[in-house]
Design a protein that fits this description.
Oligomer: single chain
Strand order of the largest sheet: 3-2-1-8-7-4-5-6
Number of domains: 3
Order of helices and strands: HHHHHHEEEEEEHEEHHHHEHEEEHHEEH
Strand content: 15-25%
Largest sheet: 8 strands, antiparallel
């Protein structure tokens, strides 16, 4: 029959205890028979009878333990019976000087196997109390010449030392079981996100009982290294050029596991794990990584998979485990495997997204773009048949607006393809914003002013600004029916501000709405809200009868550090 692990361990413990009890009872009976002692001091017949009864009792419990699982009440009852038997046996065989005192150790081991360190200490207190009370009680009747005070003190200390060592071993075993359990519950994140990496490192730190974790790794043939640290999860997964954080340790110990005592960064020798144990070495950690680590103690191990090569550092230990070196190696391998799985998952996600973009690009090119071309041809042919100069100019303006929309659509389709980086519009931001202004003026016949004091922006933001400006202006024209719209784009430090203001009727709501209020109430420009959120920015709206003002605030550095860092 297959039993759950905790129950199987308990059954084995009870069988070991039952077997030990049989051996103890048999030894007790044989000892009394072999050397009964002086009848004047010992009640030989009674002791002989008690030993025989205890042997029969022990054999019965052994058979019962082999046949079934003992419950908690029966385990406690047998534990009390064992202590009581040894007490009675000692009383009739010399009291505090009885040779059967050492059988109390059996009770200590039984308590350790059954109830861990708490049971050991409780049993030790009980045994000492019984022994001291019995000694005080019998001291009135024992001949002073036979009262061995030194043996009594030695036996008390023996119980204290043995129980303390058993409690320590029990705690050590409990800690090992906890570490194995945490390793078995290693998190399995599906996507490479800052929260997923933070969960991995938090779980790893909990296993080795460390306060800080730093991981450095390289993926495939990419030259950049990746770095993640915990508990400073705000950094996320960052990229670093060659040499900035690599190599993480001096080349002479690349691939070795090492530990060190004392403050991190101090110039003390490190202990390096080898096949023969540990040996001192002059290995040094990269200065940039030392800045991220801190506290007392350092442990590091490398990891290598088919796609990922790196090293993990643990520091600031609360209570380093005795098996820190092998534990660090096991955890490092788990981290490497998890990072590889995250990398593969992210790569598959990117491949699926790329295939979807190609499908959308084909549909737009073969559908919408061709339809716009046909509409332009029809408008051109119709303009040649109309004699009214004003109508011809109007149709010509519509055709130019369609041509500009076609150009933007072609750029958009090009950006969906695999060579998007080469196809993106390389013209300055101000020129593209001016094209947006001109296109809107042709389509809506509305004066729009755009003032841009920003020359260069990181690519993700540079590509998004014209789209957000276009959407902000169109929202103002649709909802407010203004007579003019003004757009202002400024940058102050790392904060990019985009303000779209008009003198129309405003949005259907009135008042000032912050980013949180807009997201919670689901009012305002929803699509623009999603665009800003994707860049890590915020939006606020002021709406009144005299017009509306929409402000977008984007942290340039935050927008360039995506929450999901590609490791493919």
């Amino acid at each position: 029959m297959n039993l759950p692990p905790p129950l199987a361990s308990r059954v084995q413990s009870e069988r070991v205890i039952a077997g030990g009890r049989v051996a103890l009872a048999a030894a007790s009976l044989f000892g009394v028979w072999w050397a009964p002692g002086q009848p004047a001091r010992f009640f030989v017949a009674l002791t002989y009878t008690l030993s025989g009864v205890y042997l029969a009792y022990a054999v019965g419990l052994f058979v019962l333990a082999c046949a079934r699982t003992l419950d908690d009440r029966l385990a406690i009852s047998t534990h009390v019976a064992d202590i009581a038997f040894v007490t009675v046996l000692q009383y009739f065989t010399g009291g505090p000087s009885s040779p059967f005192f050492l059988y109390f150790v059996f009770s200590l081991f039984s308590a350790t196997l059954r109830w861990d360190w708490k049971g050991t200490l409780s049993t030790a207190v009980t045994v000492l109390s019984v022994y001291i009370v019995m000694t005080l009680w019998m001291s009135r009747t024992i001949d002073p010449l036979l009262f061995e005070g030194d043996r009594i003190v030695t036996r008390c200390m023996y119980v204290i030392v043995v129980s303390g060592m058993l409690a320590y071993l029990s705690r050590h075993h409990e800690r090992l079981r906890g570490e194995i359990d945490r390793l078995a519950r290693w998190p399995q994140p599906g996507l490479l996100e800052s929260s997923a990496v933070a969960d991995l490192l938090r779980h790893a730190a909990d296993i080795v009982d460390a306060g800080r974790v730093v991981v450095v790794w390289e993926t495939g043939d990419e030259p950049d290294a990746r770095l993640a640290c915990w508990p400073d999860v705000r950094r996320g997964v960052s990229r670093h050029p060659p040499g900035e954080v690599t190599p993480p340790v001096s080349p002479n110990l690349d691939g070795a596991t090492f530990v060190a005592a004392g403050p991190v960064g101090a110039q003390q020798p490190l202990l390096v794990a080898t096949e023969r144990g540990v040996a001192p070495s002059d290995v040094r950690v990269h200065a940039r990584l030392v800045e991220l680590l801190g506290g007392e103690g350092l442990a590091s191990a490398p990891f290598r998979t088919d796609r990922v090569v790196g090293r993990v550092f643990f520091s600031d230990f609360a209570s380093p485990a005795a098996e820190l070196v092998p534990l660090t190696e096991v955890v490092a391998r788990e981290i490497g495997s998890s990072i590889e799985r995250l990398s593969l998952t992210e790569q598959m996600k990117e491949i699926a997204a790329r295939e979807e973009r190609l499908r959308v690009a084909r549909d737009l090119h073969d559908g919408v773009l061709q339809s716009l071309t046909g509409i332009r041809l029809d408008i051109g042919a119709l303009g040649g048949q109309i004699a009214d100069p004003g109508a011809r100019q109007r149709l010509a303006a519509i055709e130019r607006a369609l041509a500009m929309e076609q150009r933007e659509l072609r750029l958009f389709i090009g950006g969906l393809g695999p060579t998007a980086a080469r196809r993106r519009d390389q013209s300055p931001l101000a020129a593209r914003l001016d094209a947006v202004r001109e296109r809107i003026a042709l389509e809506w016949h509305m004066p729009v002013t755009v003032r841009c004091s920003v020359e260069t922006l990181p690519q993700p933001i540079d590509d998004a600004v014209p789209l957000m400006v276009h959407e902000g202006i169109v929202n103002a024209l649709k909802h407010g029916q203004p007579s003019r719209v003004a757009v202002t784009i400024d940058r102050r430090g790392d904060r990019l501000s985009i303000v779209v203001a008009d003198d129309g009727h405003g949005f259907p709501f009135r008042g000032h709405y912050t980013h949180a209020a807009l997201a919670q109430s689901a009012v305002g420009p929803k699509s623009l809200l999603e665009r800003v959120q994707a860049l890590g920015g915020e939006i606020s709206v002021d709406s009144s009868d005299n017009g509306a003002r929409v402000e977008l605030i984007i942290d340039v550095n935050a927008a360039c550090r995506p929450a999901s860092a590609a490791l493919a």
